[in-house]
Amino acid sequence: MPRPRIPRRVWLEPNVTYFKPAGVRMIELAEIILTVDEFEAIRLKDYEGLGQTKAAKKMGISQPTFQRIYESARKKIADALVNGKAIRIEGGPYKIMKRGRGRRFRGRR
Asked: With contact defined as beta carbons under 8 Å apart, do 32 and 82 qualify?
């Protein structure tokens, strides 16, 4: 029995969860599923420009785990672009974090 996955910390839930090529009817489209943690890895590394170590720390995972999630997401996105597939963002082991959480308190005790 595989070990259960620890929920990854996600700081921004996607507003849009479906992308499709223009001019292709939905019934004709194949789609790929991009998990929310894969979306977060792409957002942190490519959009925010964080390094893998900082992004992994922000998600609460190790750097090698972040690398695997990131590579999986990039492969899926490339497949969708090259082969004209739709992208659905859903699922995966994640936990939405609120702003201000995850930082240590540095005030008086």
From this structure: no
**At 57, is the secondary structure helix, strand, or coil?**
helix
pTM recorded for the entire structure: 0.81
Supply the CATH number for residue 86's domain.
1.10.10
What token pair was written down for 33? 């599923």
Residue 36 within any structural domain of the chain: yes
Sites in the chain below the pLDDT cut of 70: 99-109
**Nearest CA among 83, 6, 105, 94 for reference residue 43:** 94
CA 84, CA 99: separation in Å to the nearest integer?
Answer: 36
In a domain, 74, yes or no: yes
106: Cβ contacts below 8 Å, ≥ 6 apart: none
For 46, the domain range is 8-95
